[in-house]
Amino acid sequence: MTPLQRRCLDAMDIPLWRLRAPRESAASVERADRAPSAPSAHGLDWEALEAAVSTCTRCALHKARTQAVFGVGRRNASLMVIGEAPGAEEDRRGEPFVGPAGQLLNAMLRAIGLAREDVYIANVLKCRPPGNRDPKPEEAATCTPYLDRQIALVAPRAILAVGRIAGQWLLQSELPIGRLRGQVLQYGDSGIPLVATYHPAYLLRTPLAKAKSWHDLCLVRDVIATGQ
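The chain above was modelled as a monomer; its predicted structure follows.
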Protein backbone atom coordinates (compact mmCIF):
# COMPACT_ATOMS: atom_id res chain seq x y z
CA MET A 1 0.00 0.00 0.00
CA THR A 2 1.29 3.47 -0.95
CA PRO A 3 1.53 6.35 1.59
CA LEU A 4 -1.23 8.22 -0.32
CA GLN A 5 -3.61 5.26 -0.05
CA ARG A 6 -2.88 4.95 3.66
CA ARG A 7 -3.63 8.69 4.23
CA CYS A 8 -6.93 8.35 2.35
CA LEU A 9 -8.02 5.45 4.53
CA ASP A 10 -7.05 7.35 7.66
CA ALA A 11 -9.02 10.39 6.51
CA MET A 12 -12.13 8.26 5.98
CA ASP A 13 -11.60 6.58 9.38
CA ILE A 14 -11.35 3.15 7.74
CA PRO A 15 -9.33 0.73 9.84
CA LEU A 16 -6.45 -1.08 8.17
CA TRP A 17 -6.69 -4.85 8.45
CA ARG A 18 -3.58 -6.96 8.39
CA LEU A 19 -3.35 -10.67 7.58
CA ARG A 20 -2.01 -12.69 10.47
CA ALA A 21 0.04 -15.83 10.13
CA PRO A 22 -2.15 -18.89 10.67
CA ARG A 23 -1.79 -20.49 14.07
CA GLU A 24 -0.41 -23.99 14.21
CA SER A 25 -2.89 -26.57 15.33
CA ALA A 26 -2.27 -28.38 18.58
CA ALA A 27 -1.83 -31.61 16.61
CA SER A 28 0.86 -30.14 14.38
CA VAL A 29 2.74 -28.75 17.37
CA GLU A 30 2.56 -32.12 19.09
CA ARG A 31 3.87 -33.88 15.96
CA ALA A 32 6.77 -31.44 15.75
CA ASP A 33 7.58 -32.02 19.43
CA ARG A 34 7.61 -35.76 18.91
CA ALA A 35 9.65 -35.73 15.68
CA PRO A 36 13.21 -36.91 16.34
CA SER A 37 15.91 -34.43 15.48
CA ALA A 38 18.63 -35.54 13.10
CA PRO A 39 21.62 -37.00 14.94
CA SER A 40 24.83 -35.04 15.11
CA ALA A 41 27.70 -37.02 13.63
CA HIS A 42 30.06 -34.09 13.10
CA GLY A 43 33.56 -34.80 14.32
CA LEU A 44 33.00 -38.49 15.09
CA ASP A 45 35.80 -40.88 14.19
CA TRP A 46 35.09 -44.28 12.63
CA GLU A 47 34.70 -46.14 15.91
CA ALA A 48 32.40 -43.56 17.48
CA LEU A 49 30.35 -43.27 14.30
CA GLU A 50 29.85 -47.02 14.02
CA ALA A 51 28.85 -47.18 17.68
CA ALA A 52 26.31 -44.38 17.16
CA VAL A 53 24.79 -46.18 14.18
CA SER A 54 24.63 -49.55 15.96
CA THR A 55 22.68 -48.07 18.88
CA CYS A 56 20.57 -45.54 16.98
CA THR A 57 16.85 -45.48 17.90
CA ARG A 58 15.87 -42.22 16.23
CA CYS A 59 13.34 -43.78 13.86
CA ALA A 60 11.02 -46.77 14.12
CA LEU A 61 13.17 -48.99 11.89
CA HIS A 62 15.37 -49.94 14.83
CA LYS A 63 12.51 -51.91 16.38
CA ALA A 64 12.58 -54.68 13.76
CA ARG A 65 16.24 -54.78 12.74
CA THR A 66 18.51 -57.68 13.50
CA GLN A 67 21.41 -55.25 13.41
CA ALA A 68 22.33 -51.95 11.83
CA VAL A 69 24.27 -52.23 8.57
CA PHE A 70 27.07 -49.70 8.86
CA GLY A 71 29.27 -50.18 5.81
CA VAL A 72 32.31 -52.13 4.66
CA GLY A 73 35.49 -51.64 2.69
CA ARG A 74 38.55 -49.46 2.45
CA ARG A 75 38.11 -46.40 4.62
CA ASN A 76 40.23 -44.19 2.37
CA ALA A 77 38.88 -45.56 -0.91
CA SER A 78 38.89 -43.62 -4.15
CA LEU A 79 35.37 -44.85 -4.88
CA MET A 80 32.39 -44.97 -2.52
CA VAL A 81 29.37 -47.05 -3.56
CA ILE A 82 26.04 -46.04 -1.99
CA GLY A 83 22.82 -48.02 -2.19
CA GLU A 84 19.41 -47.39 -0.69
CA ALA A 85 18.86 -49.72 2.29
CA PRO A 86 19.68 -53.17 3.66
CA GLY A 87 17.63 -56.16 2.57
CA ALA A 88 16.87 -59.28 4.57
CA GLU A 89 20.26 -60.91 4.01
CA GLU A 90 22.11 -57.66 4.71
CA ASP A 91 20.13 -57.23 7.92
CA ARG A 92 21.07 -60.77 8.98
CA ARG A 93 24.77 -60.51 8.12
CA GLY A 94 25.33 -56.83 8.91
CA GLU A 95 26.97 -56.12 5.55
CA PRO A 96 25.64 -54.20 2.54
CA PHE A 97 25.25 -55.76 -0.91
CA VAL A 98 25.43 -59.47 -0.25
CA GLY A 99 23.58 -62.18 -2.12
CA PRO A 100 23.04 -62.19 -5.92
CA ALA A 101 22.90 -58.39 -6.21
CA GLY A 102 26.11 -58.11 -4.24
CA GLN A 103 27.82 -60.68 -6.45
CA LEU A 104 26.86 -58.73 -9.53
CA LEU A 105 28.12 -55.51 -7.93
CA ASN A 106 31.44 -57.24 -7.26
CA ALA A 107 31.62 -58.27 -10.93
CA MET A 108 30.80 -54.71 -12.03
CA LEU A 109 33.63 -53.37 -9.90
CA ARG A 110 36.08 -55.98 -11.21
CA ALA A 111 35.19 -54.88 -14.75
CA ILE A 112 36.77 -51.48 -14.03
CA GLY A 113 39.75 -52.94 -12.19
CA LEU A 114 38.50 -52.69 -8.60
CA ALA A 115 38.00 -55.43 -6.03
CA ARG A 116 35.20 -55.15 -3.48
CA GLU A 117 37.89 -54.56 -0.83
CA ASP A 118 39.18 -51.55 -2.80
CA VAL A 119 35.99 -49.50 -2.41
CA TYR A 120 33.81 -48.41 0.51
CA ILE A 121 30.19 -49.58 0.37
CA ALA A 122 27.32 -48.13 2.39
CA ASN A 123 23.60 -47.43 2.18
CA VAL A 124 21.49 -44.33 2.70
CA LEU A 125 19.55 -46.21 5.41
CA LYS A 126 21.37 -48.23 8.03
CA CYS A 127 18.33 -50.36 9.04
CA ARG A 128 16.13 -52.54 6.88
CA PRO A 129 12.66 -51.18 6.01
CA PRO A 130 9.96 -53.80 6.65
CA GLY A 131 9.17 -55.88 3.59
CA ASN A 132 12.03 -54.16 1.73
CA ARG A 133 9.74 -51.22 1.01
CA ASP A 134 11.18 -47.92 -0.23
CA PRO A 135 12.71 -45.74 2.49
CA LYS A 136 10.50 -42.93 3.76
CA PRO A 137 11.92 -39.40 3.40
CA GLU A 138 12.00 -38.90 7.17
CA GLU A 139 13.93 -42.14 7.59
CA ALA A 140 16.48 -41.10 4.99
CA ALA A 141 16.76 -37.65 6.58
CA THR A 142 17.46 -39.20 9.98
CA CYS A 143 20.22 -41.43 8.57
CA THR A 144 21.82 -38.82 6.30
CA PRO A 145 24.11 -37.25 8.96
CA TYR A 146 25.65 -40.69 9.47
CA LEU A 147 26.17 -41.11 5.73
CA ASP A 148 27.53 -37.57 5.38
CA ARG A 149 30.11 -38.33 8.04
CA GLN A 150 31.08 -41.57 6.31
CA ILE A 151 31.59 -39.66 3.08
CA ALA A 152 33.67 -37.03 4.87
CA LEU A 153 35.86 -39.68 6.50
CA VAL A 154 36.39 -41.66 3.29
CA ALA A 155 36.85 -38.51 1.17
CA PRO A 156 36.43 -40.47 -2.08
CA ARG A 157 37.35 -39.16 -5.49
CA ALA A 158 33.95 -40.31 -6.77
CA ILE A 159 30.61 -41.67 -5.59
CA LEU A 160 28.63 -44.34 -7.42
CA ALA A 161 24.94 -44.05 -6.46
CA VAL A 162 23.32 -47.41 -7.08
CA GLY A 163 19.61 -47.42 -7.85
CA ARG A 164 16.79 -44.90 -8.12
CA ILE A 165 16.30 -44.28 -4.41
CA ALA A 166 19.98 -43.64 -3.71
CA GLY A 167 20.43 -41.47 -6.79
CA GLN A 168 17.37 -39.33 -6.11
CA TRP A 169 18.17 -38.87 -2.43
CA LEU A 170 21.85 -38.06 -2.85
CA LEU A 171 21.11 -35.62 -5.66
CA GLN A 172 17.88 -34.33 -4.08
CA SER A 173 16.12 -34.88 -7.39
CA GLU A 174 12.83 -36.40 -8.49
CA LEU A 175 14.13 -37.35 -11.92
CA PRO A 176 13.97 -41.06 -12.80
CA ILE A 177 17.21 -43.01 -12.70
CA GLY A 178 17.20 -43.20 -16.49
CA ARG A 179 17.66 -39.43 -16.63
CA LEU A 180 20.10 -39.18 -13.73
CA ARG A 181 22.54 -41.78 -15.04
CA GLY A 182 24.99 -41.34 -17.92
CA GLN A 183 26.59 -38.14 -16.63
CA VAL A 184 28.93 -36.90 -13.94
CA LEU A 185 27.06 -34.87 -11.33
CA GLN A 186 28.08 -33.59 -7.90
CA TYR A 187 27.17 -34.53 -4.36
CA GLY A 188 25.94 -31.65 -2.22
CA ASP A 189 28.24 -28.88 -1.08
CA SER A 190 31.26 -31.18 -1.14
CA GLY A 191 31.28 -31.18 -4.93
CA ILE A 192 32.40 -34.82 -5.01
CA PRO A 193 31.75 -36.21 -8.52
CA LEU A 194 28.75 -38.54 -8.47
CA VAL A 195 27.55 -41.00 -11.08
CA ALA A 196 24.16 -42.69 -10.71
CA THR A 197 23.45 -46.07 -12.23
CA TYR A 198 20.98 -48.92 -12.11
CA HIS A 199 20.79 -51.16 -9.05
CA PRO A 200 22.31 -54.63 -9.53
CA ALA A 201 18.97 -56.18 -8.52
CA TYR A 202 17.37 -54.33 -11.44
CA LEU A 203 20.12 -55.50 -13.78
CA LEU A 204 19.48 -59.09 -12.75
CA ARG A 205 15.87 -58.63 -13.87
CA THR A 206 16.73 -56.52 -16.93
CA PRO A 207 20.01 -57.77 -18.43
CA LEU A 208 19.72 -55.50 -21.48
CA ALA A 209 20.35 -52.50 -19.20
CA LYS A 210 23.83 -53.78 -18.36
CA ALA A 211 25.28 -51.97 -21.39
CA LYS A 212 24.08 -48.65 -19.98
CA SER A 213 25.53 -49.47 -16.57
CA TRP A 214 28.85 -50.28 -18.24
CA HIS A 215 28.88 -46.74 -19.62
CA ASP A 216 28.28 -45.40 -16.09
CA LEU A 217 31.09 -47.53 -14.71
CA CYS A 218 33.44 -46.18 -17.36
CA LEU A 219 32.50 -42.66 -16.30
CA VAL A 220 33.39 -43.45 -12.70
CA ARG A 221 36.64 -45.11 -13.75
CA ASP A 222 37.64 -42.00 -15.72
CA VAL A 223 36.77 -39.67 -12.83
CA ILE A 224 38.94 -41.70 -10.48
CA ALA A 225 41.80 -41.80 -12.97
CA THR A 226 41.75 -38.08 -13.73
CA GLY A 227 40.46 -36.71 -10.44
CA GLN A 228 37.84 -34.68 -12.31
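Residues 1-6, 11-35 have pLDDT under 50 and may be disordered.
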